[in-house]
């Protein structure tokens, strides 16, 4: 049974095996949803009660399979969380076309296709939540492909929110800032990211946590946001509104 006492509300989370995706899976399970994660790899730590499907988010068939798993036994699809992402950092002049296409395939086209598959399987109110990024509206050096894809995701969300409103579908995005994930810790260890520089850009003076992003996603998935659509919710400690770095 779901949190609302019905036959079950299913949610698919792409890229649910680690980081923000894993935190989102955990939070949604705690909210009483039937949660299916679609990821290329097995989870780093499985959440009891969640279902993990190994598959490719760029495959329409794999997306459909995840939705089918989330809607077994009479459950209806309540939400699609398009979280899976990738990056190929580096100067654009040196970026191969293959790398550019790979970033676009995962970070933009797969978000579109996740939304289309969810829309095709709707059976009542549906929430689609895309995980965008601070870099979708703010420029970061050597992140051109990633930033371009995330900026396009923000536009996609607004267009679909208008196009599908009459279908009972809400479409929103969460735009995380600097989040303390496995990837960001690895970047700091390799000298690719400076904690001092990041904290100077964040008024709240710290990295965010995956759980804080998951809480925002849960809000947009659930019944407390039924009049919210077409929004890109910044969850970045104030980084996107800061004009000059803070002196600390």
Automatic annotation (TrEMBL):
Native source organism of the sequence: Nocardioides hwasunensis
PROSITE patterns, sorted: ADH_SHORT
Gene3D superfamilies registered for this protein in UniProt: NAD(P)-binding Rossmann-like Domain (3.40.50.720)
Signal peptide: none
The Ketoreductase domain, residue ranges: 9-182
Protein name per Swiss-Prot or TrEMBL: SDR family oxidoreductase
Family: Belongs to the short-chain dehydrogenases/reductases (SDR) family.
CDD domains: SDR_c
Pfam families referenced in this protein's UniProt entry, alphabetically: adh_short_C2
High-level lineage: Bacteria, Bacillati, Actinomycetota, Actinomycetes, Propionibacteriales
């Amino acid at each position: 049974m779901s949190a609302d006492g019905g036959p079950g509300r299913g949610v698919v989370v792409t890229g649910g095996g680690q980081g923000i995706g894993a935190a989102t899976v955990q939070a949604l399970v705690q909210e009483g949803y039937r949660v299916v994660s679609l990821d290329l790899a097995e989870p780093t730590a499985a959440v009891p009660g969640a279902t993990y499907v190994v598959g490719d988010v760029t495959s329409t068939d794999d997306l459909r399979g995840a939705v089918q798993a989330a809607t077994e036994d009479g459950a209806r699809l309540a939400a699609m969380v398009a979280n899976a992402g990738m990056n190929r950092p580096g100067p654009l002049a040196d970026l191969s076309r293959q790398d550019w296409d790979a970033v676009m395939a995962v970070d933009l086209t797969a978000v579109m296709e996740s939304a289309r598959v969810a829309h095709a399987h709707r059976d009542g109110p549906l929430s689609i939540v895309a995980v965008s990024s601070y870099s979708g509206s703010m420029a970061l050096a050597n992140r051109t492909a990633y930033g371009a894809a995330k900026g396009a995701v923000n536009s996609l969300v607004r267009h679909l929110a208008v196009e599908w409103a009459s279908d009972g579908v809400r479409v929103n995005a969460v735009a995380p800032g600097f989040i303390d994930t496995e990837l960001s810790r690895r970047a700091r260890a390799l000298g690719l990211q400076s904690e001092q520089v990041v904290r100077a850009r964040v008024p709240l003076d710290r990295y965010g946590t995956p759980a804080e992003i998951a809480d925002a996603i849960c809000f947009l998935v659930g019944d407390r946001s039924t009049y919210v659509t077409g929004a890109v919710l910044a969850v970045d400690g104030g980084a996107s509104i800061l004009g000059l770095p803070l002196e600390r």
